[in-house]
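Subject: sequence -> structure tokens, single chain

Hey, anyone have a minute? Need the predicted structure for the following. Not urgent.
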Amino acid sequence: MTRTSVSSVSNKKARISSSINYAEASCQGSGEAAGTLSYEELQALDDFELANIVIFGNKSFRPLQHQACKAFVHKQDCFILMPTGGGKSLCYQVTVFQL
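Reply:
Had a minute. Here:
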């Protein structure tokens, strides 16, 4: 295991931990668990989905955003045509966490 991969794994664990703490705080503050993800649900998310929820506060991707992010990271040629307000900026921003 390289130093970079160890750092990546520990960063992912830290993000999951902070997501859980945020979710727990939300539950305690409102008195209900609606809208929060369980630990198992957070573990099932890939890095893009986790960043989308934790950093950007979105509950899900818009159509084709997730596929565009995955194609970029897999170094596939991408041409993404989305309307104004379609979520192009998120595709650029969320992929930075994978580099």
